[in-house]
Specification:
By secondary structure, the protein is an alpha/beta fold. The chain has helices at residues 11-25, 87-100, 104-107, 135-148, 193-206, 224-229, 243-255, 268-275, 282-287, 308-314, 327-337; strands spanning 35-37, 47-55, 58-67, 70-78, 110-117, 123-129, 151-156, 159-162, 167-174, 177-184, 210-218, 233-240, 261-265, 294-299, 319-324, 341-349, 359-366. The longest helix is centred in the first third of the chain and has 15 residues, at 11-25.
């Protein structure tokens, strides 16, 4: 990957360039005016990971910058600070290394550090080693937790030592409400918390007026959208294949007192088969599919987007909310989806400033 060069004074310029690129790329679909949601220009990432480089007595963080024209060409870049990471991460980067540089137990064969923070500063640090972790490591790591005011997890091959807990609690203010999210170490969460709040607010706005009908959500993760949208619908059925994410989503439903949503552990493909009556079993029975009247489907797929069969399934719903982390695969999917639906809202969420990356939101409604 390319390491972003953060120049806050040029942020408006780079955001305008992204906007123009999306407008041009999607012009053939005749969408409405693009809605643009800016990010803080720096210190926007709440989670980051770094390799740890050992050089004599020195110890420092590195990242690998990949030549886009030659994936095998990687350049080592020392990272004493990282302007895209949260201020909390930047404060902890040198403090952590200072604390372990002269501690042979904590330092030996440490090769990676992962930071997970919240807007309020709660922090979980994962230290990853090329060796087994024993009692002396746990003793010193607990002292390091107290010294830095963080939580620590130690990981090595077939070993994971959780000293305090394996998650942080993010609190996002969305439309005047505070939503609580358990975010588990080493599982997917939205890295830009401010943009995440903007995405949730936008999704709430475009799905208003559906309290008498139901929402089905595919790729729900830890319930990020599920929690925010539940009050817009009579009932919500959300699906996710990751066991860790499903468990976290259920915790988040309880933490936010959401009682009208059910999270099922099932792939999008299996769910599609269940809707068609082609798949049966205990998990299908638990969903009680006959009780729902789906007016809306929300899909937040991985970068690869959706296959043709999944797009066919989406086209059966009156309203589609498509959250995309890859405009290229979104455009491919829209070639199929716009045969039956028209685009009525289109948004750019600048999840990663000073990179080529664009996060998009599209609302489609069935053509008359």
């Amino acid at each position: 990957m390319a390491i972003p060069v953060v120049e806050p004074e040029r942020y408006a310029e780079q955001l305008a360039a992204k906007r123009d690129r999306l407008v041009e790329q999607f012009a053939r679909f005749s969408p409405p005016e693009l809605e643009v949601y800016p990010s803080p220009p720096s210190h926007y990432r709440q989670r980051c990971e770094f390799r740890v480089w050992h050089e004599g007595d020195d110890l420092y963080y590195v990242m690998f910058e990949v030549n886009p024209e030659d994936p095998d060409d990687k350049r080592l870049v020392r990272m004493d600070q990282f302007a895209v990471a949260s201020e909390r991460i930047n404060a902890l980067m040198p403090a952590l290394l200072d604390a372990i540089r002269n501690n042979p137990v904590m330092r030996r064969k440490l090769f990676q550090v992962e930071f997970l923070t919240t807007l309020a500063g709660e922090t979980l640090i994962s230290l990853i080693y090329h060796r087994p972790l024993e009692e002396d490591w746990e003793r010193d790591a607990r002292e390091l937790e107290r010294e830095l005011g963080v939580m620590i997890i130690g990981r090595s091959r077939k070993q994971r030592l959780v000293l305090t807990r394996d998650h942080v609690w993010e609190r996002l203010e969305v439309d005047g409400q505070v939503l609580h999210y358990q975010q588990v170490e080493n599982s997917f969460t939205q890295p830009n918390a401010r943009i995440c709040a903007s995405m949730l607010s936008w999704a709430r706005e475009v799905t208003t007026g559906s309290q008498q009908q139901d929402l089905v959500e595919l790729y729900c993760g830890n319930g990020n959208f599920t929690i925010a949208l539940a009050e817009n619908f009579r009932r919500v059925l959300a699906t996710e294949i990751s066991r860790t994410s499903v468990a976290s989503a259920r915790v988040n439903l309880e933490a936010n007192a959401v009682t009208n949503a059910f999270v099922a552990r099932m792939s999008a493909e299996d769910f599609s088969s269940a809707l068609k009556g082609e798949k049966t079993g205990r998990r299908v029975d638990e969903m009680c599919l006959g009780d729902y009247d789906f007016s809306t489907v929300l899909v937040d797929p991985p970068r690869a987007g959706l296959d043709a069969d999944s797009c066919d399934q989406l086209s059966e719903y009156p309203r589609i909310v498509y959250i995309s982390c890859n405009p290229d695969t979104l455009a491919v999917n829209l070639e199929q989806l716009t045969r039956t639906h028209r685009i009525v809202r289109f948004a750019l969420f600048d999840q990663f400033p000073f990179t080529h990356h664009c996060e998009c939101g599209v609302l489609l409604e069935r053509r008359s």
